[in-house]
Fold this protein.
Amino acid sequence: MASSTVHAAPDRADPQQLLDAARALVPHIIAARDEANRRADVLPQTVAAIQAAGLLRAFQPARWGGLELDPRHLYDLQNVFAEHCLSTAWVFGVLSVQSFMLGRMDPLAQSDVWGDDPDTLVSSSFAPVGRVTPAEGGYRISGRFTFSSGSSHARWAVVGGMVPPDDARPAPQMRLFLVPMADYRIDRVWDTFGLRATGSNDLLIEDAFVPAYRTYVPDSGLLPLPATSGLSALYRLPWLYVFASSISSLAIGAARGALAAFTASTRERQGAFGSGASRDNPRFLSIIGRARVEIDTVERQFHANYARLADLVARNEALPMDEALLYRAELTGFMRRLVPLVDEMMLLLGGRGIQRDGPLTQLWLDLSAARAHAGNDPAAVHAQMAGEMLKP
């Protein structure tokens, strides 16, 4: 186990200063983008630059030098990156949210990760596919854990497994297991047309022992935790909402980047077959206007939902389940509300749109991959919402 030294927390960071720091990194992110896609992984120097700016401390507990930042501010930072490189934004978000999950775990587990180096990063693969066997003082776990984004930059991973039933508990139990990189290896299987640089490779674990204090039984993730949990306000927010935000709300920044690129192209583009300048074409003007409205609407809804959740946590009041499901469905739908606008922009670009170096090509490919993620499909949540409403 690592040292239990507690690192002094810095003063709460100014959100504007953090935004300025994120924007200062944009030239580096743009310059590294093509190489990151070739390697199918965000470059180590990009992650190091984000760490040096202190941005990966956003969700880290204050006792380990973290900022315990309001999620609205963290996802604003993510959207700065998403305007220019969706893979970098994705990795930033999912690595950040692991600190949120670790902030809910036993302080001894936090000490193992951050006691000697508070800059240590954690990746994850939550699907409960691990083969778990109870053992003296903990559990043994094996399995292939897929889609661990940013795993090459992490020294620990949180993976999921089902603990088999026993005499005291007749049903299997979903549990998360925190394992050091010495207990797993990365199988570099990630080869995709979009989100290539997320490095979402598989983790292979063979009969690793995990002490009980490095495991966590998650709740449904839909409702805030009560004050009796003993956690600070950030970590009482619904974990599934916070986690899913890291792969959903970045559609705001990506759509904003697409709109900027499309608008710039429209200023100078002449239509085919003598159809005149694109800047005078009603179809081009319509998509620009509609995209701006929809991006603003989604962003306002996202911030308003977090404001509501934060207020409930501050007052230690319960969130009705039907309201929780509404917020969850809205969140999972953000990507699929915005990406069709980028689809339309691509079609309007014509031959320029299908070129590999076209103004929207990589961003559109990345968004097409992102909307395929199960966390960006609201259909299942819609069914839950209907079920809640149909209750007597």
